[in-house]
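Hey, resending since the last one bounced:
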Amino acid sequence: MNKKLLLFASLVVCSLLFTACGKDVLKTEKVEGTVTLDGAPLADCTVFFTAQGEGTNGVGRTDSQGKYKLQTVQGAADAGTTPGTYAVHFNCQVVVTPEETDSEGNVTKEEVTKSAIPAKYNDAKTSGFTATVQKGANTFDFDLTSK
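The structure tokens again:
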């Protein structure tokens, strides 16, 4: 048992050292903001920043007030992303349980996932949103509309 524990601990330490040596930690700038739909906070929505040239893609998740903090794969949690221009898009899925009645009158309920926002916001090319991250703290609020 002790050999397995020692082996496991050694593997963890080696993987941490290997990861730290393999890539430099990005120098990121703080990026945060709020996402709303028709003025109301949009909860549980993923916000994507896609680099348009210089920059490092970032992602954030909104809380119950629609607030998000961006981070990158290589950066520290909630640390933002690197300076640059970004196309912004969103993924906001909700689970609904519609009732259906079959020809015999039986009612069935089946959970289905659907988008809480119009489809145009799901794609960086059609969302209509961009952001330019600069040195220092950056705040980007996005008000999506249902029409």
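The chain is about 15% helix and 35% strand.

Sorry for the duplicate.
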